[in-house]
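Subject: Predicted fold for DUF4363 family protein, 99 residues

User T.R. writes:
Posting the sequence so we have a shared reference for the thread.
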Amino acid sequence: MTKFYNESINDLLIDIENEQWDKADEAILLYMNKWEEVKNVWIYFIDQKDLDGIESSMKKINVYIKNRDKSYAQAELEHMMILFNSIKENECLTIQNIF
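User M.O. replies:
I've generated the structure tokens; pasting them so everyone works from the same file.
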């Protein structure tokens, strides 16, 4: 799932860079809806603080896109990518995490 969001975030970054606000608005709403489904599964495996951070970041991005605030939207998307990468690296069930 983090792969979906990482790829989608890159697409969204391009939309914002090109100031395609309507497309970006549709995309973030899709991601937020999908997040509601994903969050209900991840809640059992991922630290709640990490989940809250991603949700907060998505809500900020949504507002920045609605306000056509390119700089803040780009910065928050970069932050959200870091959050997803952190989950991917630190929270995934691996042999290293078990032992």
